[in-house]
Specification:
Blueprint lengths: L10 H7 L9 H4 L2 E7 L5 H11 L2 E7 L2 H10 L6 E5 L3 H6 L34 E13 L22 E4 L2 H11 L9 H18 L2 E3 L3 H4 L7 E5 H10 L3 E4 L7 E7 L7 H11 L2 H11 L6 H6 L2 H4 L8 H4 L10 H15 L2
Parallel strand pairs: 1-2, 1-3, 5-6, 5-7
Antiparallel strand pairs: 3-9, 4-7, 4-8, 4-9
């Protein structure tokens, strides 16, 4: 994961709000505030202000930039959060370890506004523990003034016409995942031979294409003309497309990583009532529309989708047709042994 990397601008806010955690164990204070553990800057200030105004509950927002770091902090119990954003890959682990609790959906009626395409997924059948918050994909963005091919496949990342002008994610699941999908395999492959093939494909790419590896810098390189084709997260890709008429975001026809982040209540939450109110509030169509507009990612709220501009709601690379959606995959939390295979392959790729 990936995605909301505007953390620097929140640093002051985090330093200030963290002070509120000190007194949260007092009953008279607990009912007046909730502690929200969020992935970077993926909520708008107005929604927080409106919630606090309506319910008189202060939202103390702490942020993280890595889901594994979130998991470790929640597991340690050092700070008791009331609402936490959880990735699809980590959801089963946190459910199985008893780190998040079942939801009382009677207190979260706005869950009915969610699109059924993003409900009842394998990570949490029946959505007993989670409410969808935001979703997206890993895809490609290209400069149509330079790239004259029809870009609809991961194959373009191996086209020598664009040597020195291809940007790859410096993250092993995303980049090996793209190679696996190009080969027709699952990006959750546990087959050592398939992972080896994907590794060799990326070694070949490094030799003949000299791709640029990075994460956030890709969003500035392609509009500046430093690259022609980038791996990119859909939120950033769609935002860049809206801002630059020469840039186009696509989800490759072989499929890609589809991710969905959801709101959950930790087992040791101190203000469950406040947490339910908050989840229900941000799940309302008005809030969902504001949040999607602010951060650029697609919303699972079907009523908010209908309120979005036509060029967004009808963009098949944002809200994908079923045949493309069926070829996309959510990352699974791999076993330790399989992770070692991926780690070994990644070390070889990056040491070239």
């Amino acid at each position: 994961m990936k995605k909301y990397m505007k953390l620097l601008s929140l640093s002051i806010c985090v330093m200030v709000t963290s002070l509120f955690f000190v007194g949260c164990t007092k009953d008279k204070e607990v009912s007046k505030e909730i502690n929200f553990f969020n992935y970077g800057e993926n909520i708008d200030e107005k929604t927080l202000e409106e919630f606090e105004k309506e319910y008189g509950i202060k939202v103390n927002m702490d942020t993280f930039d890595d889901m594994e770091a979130m998991y470790q902090k929640v597991k340690s119990g050092g700070v008791k959060y009331d609402v936490v954003l959880v990735s699809d890959a980590l959801m089963p682990r946190m459910i199985n370890e008893g780190l998040i609790q079942e939801l009382n959906k009677e207190n979260i009626p706005n869950i009915s506004q969610m699109d059924e395409n993003y409900m009842d997924l394998d990570m949490d059948k029946g959505n007993k523990y989670s409410v969808p918050y935001m979703f997206g994909t890993v895809g490609l963005i290209y400069n149509k003034d330079v790239v004259d091919e029809n870009v609809d496949s991961w194959d373009i990342l191996w086209n020598e016409k664009y040597k020195n002008k291809v940007f790859m994610f410096d993250t092993y699941r995303d980049t090996l995942g793209a190679a696996l999908k190009k080969l027709g395999y699952s990006l959750n492959s546990t087959n050592e031979k398939e992972i080896e093939e994907a590794k060799n494909l990326l070694l070949e790419q490094r030799e003949k294409m000299n791709p640029i590896y990075g994460v956030d810098n890709g969003t500035t390189m392609i509009p500046a003309g430093e690259t022609d084709i980038n791996m990119i997260w859909s939120g950033e890709g769609l935002n860049l497309q809206a801002e630059n008429p020469n840039l186009v975001y696509v989800v490759p026809k072989e499929g890609a990583n589809f991710w969905i982040d959801s709101l959950c209540i930790p087992t040791n939450a101190q203000n469950i009532d406040g947490a339910e109110k908050f989840i229900n509030f941000v799940s309302d169509k008005e809030s969902a529309l504001r949040i999607a507009d602010e951060i650029g990612y697609t919303t699972p709220n079907k009523e908010a989708q209908l309120m979005q501009p036509e060029e967004i709601r009808n963009n098949e690379n944002a809200y994908m047709p079923k045949e493309l959606m069926d070829r996309c995959e959510i990352y699974k939390d791999l076993s330790t042994d399989v992770k070692k295979i991926y780690d070994k392959a990644w070390v070889e790729i990056k040491s070239e």
